[in-house]
């Protein structure tokens, strides 16, 4: 299992970025598009239409672009920096992120582990193997903070 302290330090309280948004009810495809982007960014949902990421320049830029897209499609969006969340200690917010990443990791770890162990299938179908690795790389676990860690864990499990 993934160590729970690998993603966000429980020690350094820093601040958080909140994206609060509202899309017209008739825009179900817009909602799905926003939800997929938020999932790809690794954001966690705190409340309905309220998502959070650690306050880092890359996350701020992602939320800015997404907020602009929401507004451009007729919705409302607000980006907020938050130092403390009343009733939710820093460690609890960190646990939300780490639990989400553990689920992401577990989603791809088992199939890739089987694939790496199956030498015969790997040699017979390099394209299938490469396709599976590319798919894993597109997952939240693959290219984010955990990319190298996930790769190492999968290779360790395959031995």
- The proportion of strand residues reads 5-15%
Poorly predicted ranges:
1-7, 140-150
Strand order of the largest sheet: 2-3-1-4
Return the domain count: 2
The helicity comes to: 55-70%
Which overall shape is indicated by the principal axes computed on the Cα atoms? Answer: globular
Q: How would you state the average pLDDT, rounded? A: 75
Structural category is alpha+beta
Alpha carbon gyration radius: 18 Å
End-to-end separation in angstroms reads: 16 Å
Q: What's the total helix number?
A: 7
Number of DSSP E strands: 4
Order of secondary-structure elements: EHEEHEHHHHH
The largest sheet, given as strand count, sense and whether it forms a barrel, is: 4 strands, antiparallel
Task: Report a brief summary of the structure.
By secondary structure, the protein is of the alpha+beta class.
Characterise this structure:
With 159 residues, the protein is an alpha+beta fold. The chain has two domains: 16-82, Alpha-Beta Plaits (2-Layer Sandwich); 90-158, no CATH class. Helix content is 58%, strand content 14%. It has seven helices and four strands; from the N terminus they run βαββαβααααα. A hairpin with a 2-residue loop joins strand 2 (44-47) and strand 3 (50-54). The relative contact order is 0.17.
